[in-house]
C-alpha cells in the first residue's frame, strides 16, 4: 500500500510537470503545425531571470512572477524572430530558425552569464519533506501536482469558455477558415506563444526547484520530454499532450523502479525507442484530435 | 552532362585550390583548418544527399558520424593500447587491428548498416513527425555512445586512435563526396526523390515509392557520414561522445542551410564560408581570452554569430545562397545567353 502510494505520487508529480511541458509545446504546434525547438530555452530564461533577481530581496513569489513574465516575453520573441519572418516559406526553414534561435539563447547565456551552474533562490518549502500516510515525500512533488491540477483546470476553462480559447481552437482546426471568419492570425499565434511561455515559465520554476541550480543546457531535457509526450499523445490534440505527459512519467517511473542500475543508464534510449515504435504504430499519436487542413 | 562536369570541376577545383594554397604557405594552423574544412565538407555533403533530395530535416546525421568514428577507432587502436584505452572491451575485438584506410570504409559501412536497420520503418513519416523521430534517433545514438562503456569508454574521452588523416587524404575524400552527391542527385533515385520532395502526393500518384527512395538516400547519407566521422576520428585522435551531439549538428546544419540545402554547390560554398567565419571568430575569442579583458572566459561568440547568420539567411534567402541550380548550370546558362545575344 505504501509502495503504491509512493509510486502514485511519483508518477503524478513527474507526470504533472511533463504534461505542462508538453502542453506548452503542443499549443503552438496545434496552430502552426510547426515544432518550436527553442521551447526548452524558455525554461532556461525563467531560470536565469530567477537567478538574476535573486539578490534583490523581493518576496519569492514576486521574483517567480518576474521569471514567468520573462519566459512569456521570450516566447513572444521566439515568434517574432524565428517564426513570423519565415512562417510562410517552408517547414524546414522554420525548424532550422527555431533550432538556431535555441542555440543563440543558450550560447548567449554561456557568453553573458556563465557556463557554470548558478544557484537559484527557492523557498524553504521546496527542500522539505512531508509524511503522508506513511510515505515520506518531498513537498515540491505535492506542489507540482497542485500546480499541474490548477493550471490544467485554468487552461481547460480558457480553451473552452473564452473567446480567445475558442478562436485558438478554431485556428488549430482550420487556420484559413478561421482567418476568413475574422480571427486575427498574428494575434492568435502570438497568444499561443505567450501561453507557451507562461507554461514553460511555471514548469521551469518547478523543474529547476528539483535541482536548485540553472545551467545553459537546462532546457534540453524538458524539450525532449515535451517532444516525446506530444508524439506519444498525439501532436494535434491538447488532451493528447497531457495524456502523453502522464504516460511518459508512468513509463519513466516504472523503468526507474524495475531496471537494474546497469540498464538504467540506457533509460533514455529505451524511452526514445518506444517513441519511435509508437509513431510507427500510430503516426498520429494515441489521440487523433480534430481533423486539420493543410499547414498554412 | 557538360554542366554537371563543369560543376564537379569547379567544386573540386575549389578544394584543390585550398590544398595547393595551404601547402604553398606551409603554416601548420592553416593545414589543420583546411583538413577540418575537408572533413566538414564530407559531413555536409552527406547531409545534403538526404536533406537536399528528400526535403526532410534530419538530426540523426551526426549520430552516424559518431558510429563511424567509434567503429574505425575500435578497429585501429593498437592491441597494446586497447588494454589501457578500453579495459572492458569484448575479447573478440581485442586482437583486431586493421589499417586505418580499411577501418574507415568499415566505419562507413557499419554506419550505413545501422542506418538501414533503424531508419527503414521511419521513412514513411513526413514533416514534423519525421524531424522529431530523427531527433529521437540522435538522442538514442548519443545515449548508447555515452553509456556503452565496453566499446566507447563511456562519457570519458577515448584516446589512442592512430593519426591517419592528412590534408591530401581529406581533400580526396571531400572530392569523392562531391562526386557522390552530384551523381546521386542526378540518378534516377535522386530525381524521383526530388519529385516527391516537391509534391509528395503527385509523385506518389505517379508511382514513386517515396519511403523506399528516402531510405536509400538515408543509408547513403549515413555511409558518407560514417566515413566523415572516421576521418575526423583519425585526425583528432581522441574524442568523447559529446563531440557527436547538438553542437556539431548545429554547425553542420548551419553550413548546409547557409549555402543552400538543395544543391551540392550550396553545400560546398556554405562549408567554405562558415568554416572561414568560424575560424575568424574563434581567433577573436582566443584573443579576447588571452588578453583577459573580461573576468571570465569568453565562449559562445561563434555559435551566437552562426545562429544569427542562419536566421538572417533563412529570412532573406530561404533557399540559401544557391537555392536551385548548381554552379555549372548557372554558368552554362549565362554562357549560352551571351552567345545568343551576340
Automatic annotation (TrEMBL), chain A:
<feature type="transmembrane region" description="Helical">
    <location>
        <begin position="223"/>
        <end position="251"/>
    </location>
</feature>
<dbReference type="GO" id="GO:0006865">
    <property type="term" value="P:amino acid transport"/>
</dbReference>
<feature type="transmembrane region" description="Helical">
    <location>
        <begin position="12"/>
        <end position="32"/>
    </location>
</feature>
<comment type="similarity">
    <text>Belongs to the binding-protein-dependent transport system permease family. LivHM subfamily.</text>
</comment>
<dbReference type="InterPro" id="IPR001851">
    <property type="entry name" value="ABC_transp_permease"/>
</dbReference>
<dbReference type="GO" id="GO:0022857">
    <property type="term" value="F:transmembrane transporter activity"/>
</dbReference>
<dbReference type="Pfam" id="PF02653">
    <property type="entry name" value="BPD_transp_2"/>
</dbReference>
<dbReference type="GO" id="GO:0005886">
    <property type="term" value="C:plasma membrane"/>
</dbReference>
<keyword id="KW-0029">Amino-acid transport</keyword>
<protein>
    <submittedName>
        <fullName>Branched-chain amino acid ABC transporter permease</fullName>
    </submittedName>
</protein>
<dbReference type="InterPro" id="IPR052157">
    <property type="entry name" value="BCAA_transport_permease"/>
</dbReference>
<keyword id="KW-0812">Transmembrane</keyword>
<keyword id="KW-1003">Cell membrane</keyword>
<feature type="transmembrane region" description="Helical">
    <location>
        <begin position="93"/>
        <end position="113"/>
    </location>
</feature>
<feature type="transmembrane region" description="Helical">
    <location>
        <begin position="187"/>
        <end position="208"/>
    </location>
</feature>
<feature type="transmembrane region" description="Helical">
    <location>
        <begin position="60"/>
        <end position="81"/>
    </location>
</feature>
<feature type="transmembrane region" description="Helical">
    <location>
        <begin position="142"/>
        <end position="159"/>
    </location>
</feature>
<keyword id="KW-0813">Transport</keyword>
<keyword id="KW-0472">Membrane</keyword>
<feature type="transmembrane region" description="Helical">
    <location>
        <begin position="37"/>
        <end position="54"/>
    </location>
</feature>
<keyword id="KW-1133">Transmembrane helix</keyword>
UniProtKB/TrEMBL annotation, chain B:
<keyword id="KW-0472">Membrane</keyword>
<feature type="transmembrane region" description="Helical">
    <location>
        <begin position="129"/>
        <end position="147"/>
    </location>
</feature>
<feature type="transmembrane region" description="Helical">
    <location>
        <begin position="59"/>
        <end position="81"/>
    </location>
</feature>
<feature type="transmembrane region" description="Helical">
    <location>
        <begin position="298"/>
        <end position="316"/>
    </location>
</feature>
<feature type="transmembrane region" description="Helical">
    <location>
        <begin position="101"/>
        <end position="122"/>
    </location>
</feature>
<dbReference type="GO" id="GO:0005886">
    <property type="term" value="C:plasma membrane"/>
</dbReference>
<feature type="transmembrane region" description="Helical">
    <location>
        <begin position="34"/>
        <end position="52"/>
    </location>
</feature>
<feature type="transmembrane region" description="Helical">
    <location>
        <begin position="249"/>
        <end position="278"/>
    </location>
</feature>
<protein>
    <submittedName>
        <fullName>Branched-chain amino acid ABC transporter permease</fullName>
    </submittedName>
</protein>
<dbReference type="InterPro" id="IPR001851">
    <property type="entry name" value="ABC_transp_permease"/>
</dbReference>
<dbReference type="GO" id="GO:0015658">
    <property type="term" value="F:branched-chain amino acid transmembrane transporter activity"/>
</dbReference>
<feature type="transmembrane region" description="Helical">
    <location>
        <begin position="167"/>
        <end position="184"/>
    </location>
</feature>
<keyword id="KW-1003">Cell membrane</keyword>
<keyword id="KW-0812">Transmembrane</keyword>
<dbReference type="Pfam" id="PF02653">
    <property type="entry name" value="BPD_transp_2"/>
</dbReference>
<keyword id="KW-1133">Transmembrane helix</keyword>
<dbReference type="InterPro" id="IPR043428">
    <property type="entry name" value="LivM-like"/>
</dbReference>
<feature type="transmembrane region" description="Helical">
    <location>
        <begin position="218"/>
        <end position="237"/>
    </location>
</feature>
Amino acid at each position: 500500500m505504501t509502495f503504491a502510494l509512493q509510486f502514485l505520487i511519483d508518477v503524478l508529480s513527474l507526470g504533472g510537470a511533463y504534461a505542462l511541458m508538453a502542453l506548452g509545446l503542443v499549443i503552438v504546434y496545434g496552430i502552426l503545425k510547426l515544432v518550436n525547438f527553442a521551447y526548452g530555452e524558455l525554461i532556461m530564461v525563467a531560470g536565469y531571470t530567477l537567478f538574476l533577481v535573486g539578490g534583490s530581496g523581493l518576496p519569492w513569489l514576486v521574483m517567480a512572477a518576474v521569471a514567468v513574465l520573462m519566459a512569456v516575453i521570450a516566447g513572444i520573441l521566439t515568434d517574432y524572430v524565428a517564426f513570423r519572418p519565415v512562417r510562410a516559406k517552408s517547414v524546414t526553414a522554420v525548424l532550422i530558425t527555431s533550432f538556431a534561435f535555441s542555440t543563440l539563447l543558450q550560447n548567449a547565456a554561456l557568453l553573458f552569464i556563465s557556463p557554470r551552474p548558478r544557484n537559484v533562490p527557492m523557498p524553504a518549502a521546496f527542500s522539505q519533506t512531508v509524511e503522508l500516510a506513511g510515505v515520506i515525500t518531498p513537498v515540491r512533488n505535492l506542489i507540482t501536482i497542485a500546480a499541474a491540477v490548477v493550471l490544467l483546470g485554468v487552461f481547460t476553462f480558457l480553451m473552452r469558455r473564452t473567446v480567445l480559447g475558442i478562436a485558438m481552437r478554431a485556428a488549430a482546426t482550420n487556420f484559413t477558415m478561421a482567418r476568413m471568419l475574422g480571427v486575427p492570425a498574428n494575434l492568435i499565434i502570438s497568444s499561443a506563444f505567450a501561453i507557451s511561455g507562461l507554461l514553460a515559465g511555471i514548469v521551469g520554476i518547478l523543474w529547476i526547484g528539483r535541482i536548485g541550480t540553472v545551467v545553459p543546457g537546462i532546457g534540453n531535457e524538458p524539450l525532449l520530454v515535451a517532444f516525446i509526450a506530444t508524439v506519444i499523445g498525439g501532436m494535434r490534440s491538447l488532451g493528447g499532450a497531457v495524456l502523453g505527459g502522464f504516460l511518459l512519467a508512468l513509463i519513466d517511473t516504472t523503468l526507474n523502479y524495475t531496471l537494474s542500475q546497469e540498464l538504467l543508464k540506457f533509460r533514455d534510449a529505451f524511452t526514445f525507442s518506444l517513441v519511435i515504435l509508437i509513431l510507427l504504430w500510430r503516426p498520429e499519436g494515441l489521440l487523433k484530435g480534430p481533423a486539420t487542413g493543410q499547414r498554412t | 552532362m557538360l554542366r554537371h562536369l563543369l560543376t564537379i570541376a569547379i567544386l573540386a577545383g575549389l578544394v584543390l585550390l585550398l590544398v595547393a594554397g595551404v601547402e604553398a604557405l606551409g603554416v601548420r594552423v592553416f593545414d589543420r583548418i583546411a583538413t577540418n574544412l575537408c572533413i566538414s565538407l564530407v559531413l555536409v555533403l552527406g547531409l545534403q544527399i538526404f536533406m537536399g533530395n528528400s526535403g526532410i530535416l534530419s538530426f540523426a546525421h551526426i549520430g552516424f558520424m559518431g558510429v563511424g568514428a567509434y567503429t574505425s577507432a575500435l578497429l585501429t587502436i593498437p592491441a597494446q593500447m586497447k588494454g589501457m584505452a578500453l579495459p572492458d572491451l569484448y575479447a573478440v575485438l581485442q586482437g583486431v587491428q586493421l589499417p586505418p584506410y580499411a577501418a574507415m570504409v568499415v566505419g562507413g559501412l557499419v554506419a550505413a548498416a545501422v542506418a538501414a536497420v533503424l531508419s527503414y520503418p521511419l521513412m514513411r513519416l513526413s514533416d514534423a513527425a519525421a524531424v522529431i523521430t530523427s531527433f529521437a534517433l540522435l538522442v538514442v545514438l548519443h545515449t548508447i555512445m555515452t553509456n556503452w562503456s565496453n566499446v566507447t569508454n563511456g562519457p570519458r574521452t577515448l584516446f589512442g586512435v592512430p593519426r591517419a588523416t592528412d590534408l591530401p587524404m581529406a581533400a580526396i575524400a571531400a572530392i569523392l563526396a562531391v562526386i557522390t552527391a552530384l551523381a546521386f542527385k542526378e540518378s534516377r533515385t535522386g530525381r524521383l526523390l526530388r519529385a516527391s520532395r516537391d509534391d509528395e502526393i503527385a509523385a506518389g500518384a505517379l508511382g514513386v515509392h517515396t519511403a523506399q527512395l528516402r531510405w536509400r538516400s538515408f543509408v547513403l547519407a549515413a555511409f558518407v557520414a560514417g566515413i566523415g566521422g572516421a576521418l575526423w576520428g583519425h585526425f583528432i585522435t581522441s574524442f568523447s561522445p559529446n563531440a557527436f551531439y547538438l553542437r556539431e549538428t548545429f554547425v553542420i546544419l548551419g553550413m548546409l542551410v547557409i549555402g543552400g540545402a538543395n544543391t551540392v554547390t550550396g553545400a560546398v560554398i556554405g562549408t567554405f564560408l562558415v568554416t572561414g567565419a568560424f575560424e575568424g571568430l574563434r581567433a577573436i575569442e582566443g584573443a579576447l581570452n588571452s588578453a583577459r579583458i573580461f573576468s571570465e572566459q569568453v565562449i559562445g561568440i561563434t555559435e551566437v554569430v552562426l545562429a544569427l547568420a542562419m536566421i538572417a539567411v533563412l529570412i532573406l534567402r530561404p533557399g540559401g545562397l544557391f537555392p536551385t541550380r548548381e554552379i555549372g548550370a548557372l554558368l552554362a546558362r549565362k554562357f549560352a545567353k551571351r552567345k545568343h545575344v551576340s
